[in-house]
Amino acid sequence: MYKPSPQDLIAQRVTALAPLVKRIAHHLMVRLPANVEVDDLIQVGLMGLMEAAQHFDETLGVQFETFAGQRIRGAMLDELRQLDWLPRQVRRQLKEVESAMTQLEHQLGRPAGESELARHLGMPLADLQRTLDDGRGHQLLYLDDFAVDDDNPLIDRLLPDHAANPHTLLEEDGFRQTLIDAIRRLPEREQLLMSLYYEQELNLKEIGEVLGVTESRVSQLHTQAISRLRACMREWLSEPRRN
């Protein structure tokens, strides 16, 4: 009976899942500014797929598509992180918004509405919404973005062994549960938006039709939801490390 060589198996896996690379790239592009090229994401995604095909271990009991999907997305996010395409001023403004979200939630005992948030920041509502628009793409959740300050990197604080995989943090029970709780505390419309986008994989236009708002408004709400989650996770990570 013919048994394919390891090289043949790798080639078959890459060929079978090449369309997945394009699908993940285009899914990410919805949240990125126009200066990011989809072909660049596809290229690094293919490299991630090839790496996944080479290192896949069938004995782990995980489907190759699941394993490869994580590697592909991870390669794309790493590339975007290195590009650092979000202006420092916008990044700083969004951190101020996230800090205000945390303060108001403690004061009110619930997530703050946009009008409340704008008043707290001392800015017109339109300016707050413009800031959220400018932050399009900041919706990508990078581990380093949870750092309390720029001089205290998350990886240095949580993973002293730099050879370790930083993504193991995402497997920690406390991190996962905190994120789940933060999602449950989102305003109802933002919870629905997250479900439609990440679970049902609707695009922004389709979500807008469900929510009865414009595509631009969906993008603002999405940025706002991720900013709330980022603020919650940063607060959790600023606490003493759990053992």
Characterization of the model:
A motif (Interaction with polymerase core subunit RpoC) lies at residues 40-43. Keywords: Cytoplasm, DNA-binding, Sigma factor, Transcription, Transcription regulation. Residues 182-230 are annotated as: Sigma-70 factor domain-4. It comes from Leeia aquatica. With 243 residues, the chain is mostly helical. The longest helix is centred in the first third of the chain and has 24 residues, at 6-29. The protein has 2 domains: 6-83, Rna Polymerase Sigma Factor, Chain: A (Orthogonal Bundle); 88-238, Up-down Bundle (Butyryl-CoA Dehydrogenase, subunit A, domain 3), CATH 1.20.140. Helices cover 67% and strands 0% of the residues. It is elongated, with a radius of gyration of 20 Å.
What order do the helices and strands come in, and which of them pair?
Elements: H1 6-29, H2 38-55, H3 64-83, H4 88-108, H5 114-121, H6 125-134, H7 154-158, H8 173-184, H9 188-199, H10 204-211, H11 215-238
Helix pairs in contact: 1-2, 1-3, 2-3, 4-5, 4-6, 4-11, 5-6, 6-11, 8-11, 9-11, 10-11
Keywords:
DNA-binding, Butyryl-CoA Dehydrogenase, subunit A, domain 3, elongated, Rna Polymerase Sigma Factor, Chain: A, RNA_pol_sigma_r3/r4-like, mainly alpha, sigma factor activity
